[in-house]
Design goal:
6-stranded parallel sheet, Rossmann fold, OB fold (Dihydrolipoamide Acetyltransferase, E2P)
Length: 708
């Protein structure tokens, strides 16, 4: 057979004609290199061949022998049949049973030895008085192939994920053929040898051969854990490409001088001190110093400020905005929902409104046109808004600092559109959902990171209880008794605005009826995203002032609502919320000096739901919760689709391979400027950068996303 090139079309393989080539192309396989990149997702050790006399019920095993007495048994169910036979070797015989494989009766030669692999079960034919099987065990639905040219047994067998009509066996046959005709050691190696030697990693070709055709001495446990040397080589290479791309993206954004500078002197410091309503924590001072140091540099700041619920991110952002405003620049503060934007606007107006002109820009604000006009003329110094800030027609006279709250609700594309509203403005993105370091380095690797890891003094941990739905009545009776005794306030959160026949979950209106009955005569109000802006503001103001004692709401109160007198949070249908979201909701209480508690009521739980609620009940540490959430759901679910352009990881896993993320980041700093001569690595990096920039370029079309 002739040798194959990695770029050869798959039609050069035996058995791949135009029809099969089209099927392969639909699954993303066009050339030989595409097949080689499709790695097994697990491995079975079929290298040990057992005598049939040593068959163990309940265990999969591989046997070799001759097949005798094969016969088809027709079943009453139409189209169903069985094939029964006996496998014989020198140690004895073992009954074999296949479902719906009638062709075996005519294909099997009783003079040929076959390799069979399958699970052994107790006899299905004979039952004793007590119902237990009394006959010999039998081999159930095994694979079957001649021992002289076996492909699927007698080896450590790779198992591939199928795609449509492309089953694992077909992919295995094609890849075995590829490895027969390609010299794996000659495959181009995109990584510099020095890096492979530094980390003790094999070359790419050697790694691919070891993964597609492991020898009998391979460590199957390591292969299945993606911890073999070959896996480590591919994991490292994938993460290195991503980290070099992120370093280049950062350079593209900060590599040009800004047309303005910031003033940071005693006068500005004095203004900041007068704005402060309280003393900063040590963590707040450290993060503010990092931000101001960035602002004083001649190129744009790109920084992520993350901290647990209640750690004081908004005041840090407000002080950074003071520096911009005192330097004659404009500031923008973007939030994902109208309610949160309104809350931030009220807070910033309270802190800064006497000194600077502020504006609110949301879809429902009747003064939006006047705010846009003031921004363009430089008469509005600081604007707070939603996606409306990144719509066409919004212009700034001199945008200096853009702040984005709850960054994970937007993504790379939206923040780059906001940056494009000015001439290389500085960017501060914030999240109250702590991000595990491995995820932060990959999703936000083009940003410097500041961490608020300290809560303001006086905060008390929130007591948390997770209870089944059957305890609902008792929970609300206790709430009523508690609120009548004290002047406290409570939140009750539901996943739905209205009742739904399709979803087994509580609605706001249904719960509000129960709550009113349980706490009468205390006033109860309802809050959700469909209310008009003026009505939302009135409801929140009444709750903050104590005119309303219980606020029954959807998750619109997840972030931004700050009422220190609220001491109880009840979450209905808790199984329908993510772990980070539950933690955010719990963060609405415990903001004062009184003891606070959170109760989660749940219905039927999946295994993942049970894990989430166990973690939530066990800890109030947002960073622990973030790590657990990453482990339970994985990075793809946590990032969702908003991180447009993030490189898709084929082999690496940001939970399992977090140490390699750190290693790749360190090496990327060294190699981002040394890719001359490493054309394939450079091409892969440039492709990641291109996808990310294209995602940002198409973001304007989505900038009119509806506010929640």
């Amino acid at each position: 057979m002739s040798s194959l090139s990695p770029d050869a079309p798959l039609t050069e393989l035996r058995g791949v004609g135009p029809k099969r080539a089209a099927t392969l192309a639909e699954a993303g396989f066009h050339r030989v290199r595409d097949l080689l990149s499709h790695l097994p997702w697990r491995y079975e050790d079929r290298s040990t061949i057992l005598p049939v006399a040593e068959a163990v019920v309940g265990e999969p095993a591989t046997f070799q022998g001759r097949l005798k007495n094969l016969a088809r048994v027709r079943l009453r169910r139409r189209g169903m049949s069985l094939v029964r036979g006996v496998l014989e070797d020198d140690s004895g015989s073992l009954p074999v049973l296949w479902f719906n494989r009638p062709y075996l009766v005519h294909q099997v030669d009783d003079e040929v030895e076959y390799l069979l692999h399958g699970k052994v079960r107790a006899s299905s034919r004979k039952k004793g008085v007590d119902g237990e099987a009394v006959g010999p065990p039998e081999l159930l639905n095994p694979s079957c192939e001649p021992a002289s040219n076996a492909l699927h047994s007698g080896r450590v067998m790779p198992v591939y994920a199928g795609s449509g009509t492309l089953g694992p066996a077909l992919l295995r046959r094609l890849l075995d053929q590829v490895l027969e005709r390609i010299e794996a050691a000659q495959l181009p190696e995109p990584l510099p040898p020095g890096l492979l030697e530094r980390h003790g990693l094999p070359a790419l070709g050697e790694s691919l051969a070891a993964l597609h055709a492991p020898d009998d001495s391979a460590d199957v446990a390591a292969l299945n854990a993606f911890a073999s040397p070959a896996h480590r080589r591919l994991i490292y290479g994938e993460l290195l490409e991503m980290q070099i791309a992120l370093a280049r993206l950062r350079r593209l954004q900060v590599g040009h001088r800004q047309p303005f500078t910031y003033t940071v002197d005693d006068r500005v410091r004095d203004v900041a001190r007068r704005v402060l309503p309280f003393s900063l924590t040590a963590a707040q001072r450290r993060c503010l110093r990092q931000i101001v140091d960035d602002l004083r540099l001649p190129h744009p700041m790109l920084r992520l400020l993350q901290g647990d619920v209640g750690s004081g991110k908004t005041i840090v952002a407000a002080l950074a905005l003071v520096v911009a405003l005192e330097s004659g620049l404009q500031g923008a503060f973007m939030a994902p929902t109208e309610l949160l934007a309104e809350q931030h606007y009220a807070r910033l107006r309270e802190l800064l409104g006497e000194r600077y002109p502020l504006g609110l820009l949301t879809a429902s604000n009747p003064d939006a046109e006047a705010v846009r006009w003031g921004l363009a003329r430089g008469e509005v110094g600081l604007v707070v808004g939603t996606h409306a800030l990144i719509q066409e027609g919004v212009e700034f006279a001199r945008l200096g600092l853009a702040v984005i709250d709850e960054q994970h609700r937007f993504g790379v594309a939206q923040r780059q559109v906001l940056q494009a509203k000015g001439e290389r403005p500085d960017l501060l993105v914030m999240t109250a959902t702590p991000i595990p370091r491995s995820l932060a380095l990959s999703a936000y690797g083009d940003l410097a990171v500041s961490v608020l890891d300290e809560l303001p003094p006086g905060r008390r941990p929130v007591t948390t209880a997770v209870l089944p739905r059957q305890r609902t009545g008792a929970v609300y009776r206790r709430l009523g008794e508690e609120l009548r005794r004290s002047g406290g306030r409570a939140y009750v959160v539901c996943p739905l605005i209205e009742e739904s026949e399709a979803l087994d979950a509580s609605s706001v209106e249904e719960v509000a009826r129960r709550v009113r009955k349980a706490v009468e005569p205390l006033p109860v109000a309802v809050l959700h995203g469909r209310l008009a802006a003026a009505e939302r503001e009135r409801v929140v103001a009444d709750f903050a002032a104590g005119r309303t004692r219980v606020l029954v709401s959807t998750t619109v109160i997840e972030v931004g609502v700050d009422v220190p007198e609220a001491t109880v949070m009840i979450i209905e249908s808790g199984e329908r919320f993510g772990l980070a979201q539950l933690h955010q909701l719990r963060g609405r209480v415990g903001r004062g000096t009184e003891e606070s508690r959170c109760v989660v009521l749940h219905g039927t739980l999946s295994e993942e739901g049970r894990q989430r609620l166990e973690v939530f009940e066990a800890t109030t540490d947002g960073f622990e919760i973030a790590e657990a959430d990453l482990a339970i759901r994985g990075p793809g679910d946590l990032l969702g689709t908003r991180q447009s352009g993030l490189a898709r990881l084929r082999v690496a896993d940001l939970v399992r391979d977090r140490e390699w993320v750190e290693t790749a980041r360190e090496d990327a700093r060294e190699w981002e400027d040394r890719l001359d001569g490493w054309d394939e690595l450079r091409a892969r990096v440039e492709e990641i950068v291109r996808r990310r920039l294209e995602a940002a370029g198409s973001a304007t079309a989505t900038a009119t996303a509806t506010d929640s």
